Automatic annotation (TrEMBL):
Keywords: Activator, DNA-binding, Transcription, Transcription regulation. PROSITE patterns: HTH_ARAC_FAMILY_1 (PS00041), HTH_ARAC_FAMILY_2 (PS01124). GO terms for molecular function: DNA-binding transcription factor activity; sequence-specific DNA binding. The keyword Transcription regulation applies. The lineage of its organism: Bacteria, Pseudomonadati, Pseudomonadota, Alphaproteobacteria, Rhodospirillales. Pfam families: AraC_binding, HTH_18. This is Transcriptional regulator, AraC family. It comes from Pararhodospirillum photometricum DSM 122.
Length: 285
């Protein structure tokens, strides 16, 4: 397939043939507001410099270096210097990563994380770019077995068993409420009654547990739900309603701020996935 043209100012979601993996190719000077993903993100900078603030420390990466993000990790994004930056990113659903880790650890570990926000290993970055190309090339041209083996080899070099982040029991109820029904209206009073805590305790505890205040966390959960519904083929207006946004323009504004492109463009990127076959990395026997 070769390198994908990346004109300045573009963020493209590219089709892949592997369920549970989203590929994004970007070349932009855009500044991304603080946000989260519900996937593991693994990318390589190919031009310029990329900076962000994450819970694992400051991120400054240049060509030949990898950048990572774990599910739920609050981070932002900005170019370093003038001229923007270009990078290619793979977002992997937790089921894909869990299946890979179970294979790699022979069943000893089921949860994983990326320990370093920046990985300065040019060989690994080059390997990621090869995997990116393989997953965004028609499977007939790549070979399913070869592509899956390349991905496993890449993950073997970057995954670490996850430690998990403890959330106080009372706060866990509030987090669970927003996780399970982000589309439903909720007030700070509702969360205080649910947890038995004061409103200020809820806000302070939420920031400590998730990195975001309750309202910002709720918006991120709505955006992640919207992303999944868009990939499932629902119209943008219907997605906005189903996820609790005021209207389609509200969803579009927040979606572009977090993902770099409007929901319609994100949804219309085709998929090379064969409907009758599943990738071995994410299958359930």
């Amino acid at each position: 397939m070769g390198d994908i043209p990346m004109p300045h100012g573009s963020v493209l979601r590219l089709p892949t043939w592997t369920p549970g993996i989203v590929a994004v190719s970007a070349a932009t000077a855009q500044v991304f507001a603080r946000h989260t993903h519900d996937q593991h993100g693994l990318g390589a900078v190919v031009r310029g410099g990329h900076g962000s603030a994450s819970g694992r420390g400051p991120v400054e990466a240049g060509p030949g270096e990898m950048i990572t993000v774990n599910p739920g990790e609050v981070h932002d994004g900005r170019p370093l210097g003038e001229g923007g930056r270009a990078w290619k990113m793979l977002y992997l659903d937790p089921t894909v990563v869990t299946a890979a880790l179970l294979d790699l650890s022979e069943g000893r570990f089921a949860t994983a994380e990326f320990a370093q926000p920046v990985i300065a290993r040019p060989g690994l970055a080059a390997g990621l770019l090869r995997v990116f190309e393989a997953l965004t090339t028609p499977v007939e041209a790549v070979g399913r077995l070869r592509g899956e083996a390349m991905l496993l080899a890449l993950l073997a070099g970057v995954l670490h068993p996850g430690e998990g982040r403890g959330v106080p029991a009372a706060l866990r109820l509030a987090v669970q409420r927003l996780d399970e029904a982000p589309e439903e209206p909720v007030s700070l009073d509702d969360l205080a009654r649910l947890t038995g805590l004061g409103r200020f305790q809820v806000v302070r505890g939420f920031v400590r547990a998730t990195g975001l205040p309750p309202h910002a966390y709720l918006m991120q959960r709505r955006l992640q739900r919207a992303r999944r519904l868009l990939l499932a083929g629902l119209p943008v207006a219907e997605v906005a309603l189903a996820c609790g946004f005021a209207d389609q323009s509200h969803l579009t504004r927040l979606f572009k701020r977090g993902f770099g492109l409007p929901p319609g463009a994100y949804a219309t990127a085709g998929r090379l996935q064969e409907p009758s076959r599943r990738s071995g990395l994410g299958r359930k026997d």
